[in-house]
Amino acid sequence: MKRSGTGRVLATLFLGVIFGAFRHYQQLRMLAQGRDGYMAEQGQYFDRIVKLHSAGFTVVAGIILAVVAVGLYELISAGFTHVLPPSTVEE
Predict the structure, then answer these.
(1) Phi, then psi, of 85 in degrees rounded to 5
(2) Which residue from 84, 91, 90 is spatially nearest to 6, judged by alpha carbons?
(3) Residue 3 DSSP symbol
(4) Cβ pair 8, 74 in contact under 8 A
(5) How far apart are alpha carbons 24 and 45 in whole angstroms?
(6) Are 3 and 81 spatial neighbours (Cβ–Cβ below 8 Å)?
(7) Which residues contact 43 (CB under 8 A, 6 or more apart)?
(8) What is the DSSP letter of 84?
(9) CA separation for the pair 42, 35 (Å, rounded)
(10) What sign for the dihedral angle of Cα 10, 12, 18, 20?
(11) How is the chain split into domains, by residue range?
């Protein structure tokens, strides 16, 4: 089966929109807390990093995250390619 570039482009756009909406939601939540709430949350985040910081843990977590992201991208891309009609342009 020949892969369509359109499916990959649509998958990239879809994931970009989902990520942008998620970041917007996070920023709205932070703005609602105010400056003091934001600083308290950042202090808790820093404390969590200090307790759990390990190069091996970070590398393994990064690899797992990359595999999940690429797998999700490929699944969405294959879905869009399957749903879209095949291109009739001959190369």
Answers:
(1) -70, 150
(2) 84
(3) P
(4) no
(5) 19
(6) yes
(7) none
(8) S
(9) 11
(10) negative
(11) 7-82
Is the model's pLDDT at 3 over the cut of 70?
A: no
Token code pair at residue 44 = 């808790």
Amino acid (one-letter) located at 54: S
Residue that is written with structure tokens 């590398």 in the block: 59
**DSSP reduced 3-state for 4:** coil
Q: Count how many residues are written for the chain.
A: 91
Q: Tokens 């879209």 belong to which residue?
A: 84
Amino acid at 24: H
Tell me the two tokens of residue 10.
């649509």
Q: Supply 66's token pair.
A: 């990359």
Listed residue (44, 20, 43, 41) closest to 32, CA to CA: 41
Instruction: Dig out the tokens for 39 from the structure.
Output: 């600083």
Summarize pLDDT for 16-69 with one digit per residue, the tens.
999 999 999 999 999 999 999 999 999 999 999 888 878 888 899 999 999 999
